[in-house]
Amino acid sequence: MILPFKLSPPEGCSDSPQWDGMNFVLSGQCTPVLEYSENFAGWSDELTALHEEVAGNSHPIDIASRRDALKQVKNVMPSAHAVIMEIGCSSGYLIRDMVHFFPEAVILGGDVVKEPLFRLAKSISGVPLLRFDLLQCPIPDKSVDVLVMLNVLEHIEDDDSALQKAYNLLKPGGSLVVEVPASPHLYDAYDAELQHFRRYSASELHSKLNKAGFTIDRKSHLGFILFPAFAAIKIGNKFSLSRKNKTTVRKQASGTSESPLVRLAMNVESNYLSNIQLPFGVRVLVTARRPA
After folding, report:
1. Sequence-ordered alpha helix ranges (H) in 77-214
2. 35 near 114, Cβ under 8 Å?
3. I want to staple 150 with a disulfide (CB 3.0 to 4.6 A). Which of 104, 179, 196, 237 is the partner?
4. What is the distance between the alpha carbons of residues 168 and 161, in angstroms, rounded to a whole number?
């Protein structure tokens, strides 16, 4: 596979990196992950490890999230050979799904983390992986057909600039599939521990996307059925002692990951409600387009 765009050299290098189908070749050296910049203000390798430990790839909400994202990507792909990029790919669960379902597409992954990207490179071949801060994006403008950002924006302090960068990355007519945590008033110890700068209302996210130049094609929520119980837990977290010793994520993510009721609720939602514009939920879902 040849990359359909030219990458700029990382800082300190004069040669442009080349992708040979398995590794990036830079100044005669090979690397499975091309590293540009980092920004650990809103995430870290340690948080990735925590998420893998307590939820892995089997949390019912995350499974439903990936299922919805795959459906949206399929709906907006201009052709089977589209350029698809996931920013915030982390351990690569969605990347693996996209490689399976879209075998002819050019698929790339990007994140600010380091160790998880190198582990992913060992377990999946033929997928270019880049380490960079979206606010310092090294990819040329108008390079990507479909951009996926699941639970990324809340980790970026300057989310307006991040959305503008995402807009610039897309080809005219290209689409952004984005997901963020819902309900700002439910921000709690769980969010703080995960280094979220914020949660979003649907109207706030729509406004920010419009400001960046996007047209919104689809809007909904994920976790509609679970929301009443979810809201009650979030309110309880505000008064929980665990907020002081940072154990909220470990306790609650592992508990909901193994819950048959959570799994049933998300299966019902995915199978019967995914085509409905759901008015509230655990996460806000939007598919937005850069006008042609």
Report:
1. 93-101, 115-123, 159-169, 189-193, 202-212
2. yes
3. 179
4. 10
Which secondary-structure segment (H or E) carries 260?
helix 260-268
Structure confidence by residue, pLDDT tens digits, 79-90: 999 999 999 998
Phi, psi torsion values for 221, nearest 5 degrees: -135, 160
277-290 average pLDDT score? 98
Query: For residue 179, which phi and psi values (nearest 5 degrees)?
Result: -140, 135
The whole-angstrom separation of Cα 163 and Cα 262 is 31
- DSSP H/E element including 51: helix 45-54
Residue 189 contacts residue 247 (beta carbons within 8 Å): no
Task: Say how many residues make up the chain.
Answer: 292
Share the mean pLDDT of the chain: 92
Q: What is the mean pLDDT of residues 55-60?
A: 82
Tokens of 227: 């929301």
pTM: 0.94
In this prediction, residue 187 carries a pLDDT of 94
Please tell me the number of Cα atoms within 13 Å of 13 on its side-chain side. 16
